[in-house]
Structure formats: C-alpha cells, structure tokens
C-alpha cells in the first residue's frame, strides 16, 4: 500500500534531552488520534538519541530513523555506525543519500548503493534521497541527474527489497534555504521519478512507492504540496525541530 509519510530530519541538532522533549510533544499530540494504517510518522534523529527516542514514543504511531549508516558490515572502521547497530537500537528506518552526505562526506553513488544494501540486509526501511543542485536545474539537466541517482542506487536491488524503500525528492536548492519547489515543480519531478521506478520494477511497484518531497517544507506550504497526486508526504528538516510546526505538517496530509 502506498503510504503517506511525514518524516523528520533533525540533522545534527538538539542534545538528547531536547530531542526527547520534541519527541514527547509529538507523541502527546498523537496519543488520542487514530492514525490511518497508511499514514506513518518517522523521526530521523542523531545516533546518540536513537534509544531514548525509541523509548519515548508509541511505536504503533511513530517510527524512528537514523540519518545515515555505514557502508560496511562491521570491523575496523573507527567512528562508523553499522545498520545492525541502528536496528538494535529499535530504529526501523534509515535516511540514505541525503545531499548533505553526498556534498560533505563523500557519499558517492557507489557508497550509497553499498549503504542501501546494508540497510536491506538488516531489515531497515531506507528513505533514499535524490535531487539536483540549482546549477543542474538551470542547465536543464535535473531530470537526467535524478534519473542517474535512482538508476545507480537501484539497478542491483531486487523488487522485494525495493518495495521496502521510500524515496525522497529533495532539490538541493530548496534545502534549508526557505525556497520551496512549487507544487508544480515538485509534482513534475515526482511523476518523473515514478516513471523511472516503473521502468525498473513495473507500474504496480511504482504505484505503491511512497515519494516524499523535501526542501523547506513548513506548516504553511505543506498542504499545497501534499495535495499533488504523486507527492506522498514530506521529509522535513528545519520545521521538524519545532513541534507545533511539525504537527501542522502532520495535519496537512
Ligand atoms: P529543510 O531540510 O526542511 O530544512 O529544507 C530538509 C532536508 O534536508 O531533509
């Protein structure tokens, strides 16, 4: 079933205590609400917060994500955190291929593909990010760029594993800038992404895939984005650190 997903990406923000406070507020808001089975709330938190946030939230309503995982299984990789370690903290999801990882930490398409395979091996659900830079959009190569990111990530992934995947389209020029893609720009790319998935896995799988939009989503613009046919939710950075704003976004879907 294609799910509507609102995922938070706290990035490298909050100390564990502050993170638990945010998680508590969202948990409290959801406590007396019936969440439809096709609606998921995911909190993407720093590694240091995983266990505490997992312990704070009602797991039937809120799932927890790490924001990255190692491409390696285990061993002498100082400072790395494996997918198995993340899973053992009670997290169910992992964000993979975020543009900040690609830009600052050398996450190439090859590394991202290895991280995806670690996520699948350890029964985590990946939230795979793709998106073009401003320059690429201005040069009119944005569709090609996103297609290449998708093909290189999934060409070796079988259908069973792909069906565990959530896609997040995050144009780099919209991340943390306050500039949001218009609903038309986002919808145009989302349908393109769905068609790329259909070429790899067929229309049935593509129809069931949740494709989130990310990039300066807030309480004011969420609804117009989520109303688009192929936008199944959002990956939310800055606004996810403000519980009231994040709740507005949850209410917009
Ligand atoms: P933003 O970040 O909502 O602050 O633009 C989104 C993201 O990077 O996932």
Question: How would you describe this structure in keywords?
Answer:
253 residues; alpha/beta; TIM Barrel; eight-stranded parallel beta barrel; 12 helices; 43% helix; binds 2-phosphoglycolic acid
* Main sheet specs: 8 strands, parallel, barrel
CATH topology descriptor: TIM Barrel
Rg computed from alpha carbons, rounded to a whole number of angstroms: 17 Å
Task: Give the total of beta strands.
Answer: 8
Short summary:
With 253 residues, the chain is of the alpha/beta class. The protein contains twelve helices and eight strands.
Task: Describe what you observe in this structure.
By secondary structure, the protein is an alpha/beta fold. It has one domain: Alpha-Beta Barrel (TIM Barrel). It has an eight-stranded parallel barrel, surrounded by five helices. The protein binds 2-phosphoglycolic acid. 2-phosphoglycolic acid binds next to strand 8.
Set down the secondary structure blueprint.
Elements: E1 4-9, H1 16-31, E2 39-44, H2 50-56, E3 62-66, H3 83-88, E4 93-96, H4 99-104, H5 109-121, E5 125-130, H6 134-138, H7 142-154, H8 159-162, E6 166-169, H9 183-201, H10 203-208, E7 211-214, H11 222-226, E8 233-236, H12 243-251
Parallel strand pairs: 1-2, 1-8, 2-3, 3-4, 4-5, 5-6, 6-7, 7-8
Bound molecules: 2-phosphoglycolic acid.
The site of 2-phosphoglycolic acid (PGA) has 13 residues, from strand 8.
